[in-house]
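ok, trying the design again with the full structure, not the truncated one.
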């Protein structure tokens, strides 16, 4: 059994913050390494790269990442973060990982994700009644898991913080860093990283990309997105029959966007 999570106020004032980033085969490495770069520069951060074993975990583009901590050896965390990637589809049916997320979340002050990692949180019953975001191609699937889809780059709802697709992981991590360590520290880290994006094309979002490009991209990824939807529907069916789901977000907070898990009911 994990300890009761620190309140957000206590976490902000803590000298040490334990952050866990979940690995899995065929994750999108930038979903994880973008936030890891930010968190690695956070004063007092203790970052754990988590998986079932300590064997190298292959990403979807060939880069392998070494876990530092197994699920079984994971200490109490203050923050848990789930990235996305093609392997997320299989992770939706992975009982060991879903049970780990449910268990570790009990002691976390912040429960977070990047890209389609929000669907994994949803499959674990951790986004029911919460506002959240996801990769643009699959954001609608959040509603199948009881979450409220929000088309924003970073979404905060009480103690849930979710980032949209891939590159938004850096924005997500800087947002979380500002929340815990203050704007000054977050701005210093942003400057250290020279995070000042000026992409060569205005095509990084459906809001700005040409309609023909959006349609062509949707067609290209449609078969995979359908596979993802089928996995999401299976997860939704299991949630409907899951008696021990986590506390939901039915009651909206009036005291701020983030609270500890213990204060959600």
């Amino acid at each position: 059994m994990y300890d009761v999570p620190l309140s957000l106020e206590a976490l902000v004032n803590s000298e040490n913050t334990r952050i866990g980033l979940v690995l899995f085969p065929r994750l999108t490495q930038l979903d994880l390494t973008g936030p890891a770069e930010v968190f690695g520069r956070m004063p007092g951060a203790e970052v754990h790269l988590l998986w079932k074993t300590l064997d190298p975990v292959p990403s979807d583009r060939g880069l392998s990442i070494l876990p530092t901590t197994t699920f079984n050896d994971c200490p109490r965390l203050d923050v848990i973060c789930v990235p996305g990637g093609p392997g997320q589809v299989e992770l939706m049916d992975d009982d060991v990982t879903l049970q780990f997320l449910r268990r570790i979340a009990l002691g976390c002050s912040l429960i977070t994700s990047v890209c389609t990692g929000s669907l994994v949180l949803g499959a674990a019953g951790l986004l029911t009644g919460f506002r959240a975001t996801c990769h643009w191609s699959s954001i609608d699937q959040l509603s199948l898991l009881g979450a409220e889809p929000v088309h924003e780059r970073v979404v905060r709802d009480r103690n849930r913080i979710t980032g949209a697709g891939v590159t938004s992981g850096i924005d997500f991590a800087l947002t979380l860093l500002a929340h815990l360590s203050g704007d000054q520290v977050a701005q210093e880290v942003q400057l250290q990283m020279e995070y000042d994006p000026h992409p060569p094309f205005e095509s990084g979002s459906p809001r700005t990309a040409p309609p023909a490009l959006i349609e062509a991209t949707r067609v290209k990824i449609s078969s995979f997105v359908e596979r993802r939807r089928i996995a999401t529907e299976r997860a939704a069916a299991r949630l409907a029959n899951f008696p021990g789901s986590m506390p939901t977000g039915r009651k909206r907070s009036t005291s701020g966007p983030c609270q500890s898990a213990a204060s959600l009911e």
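Keeping the full-length input from now on. The CA atoms of residues 203 and 210 lie 7 Å apart.
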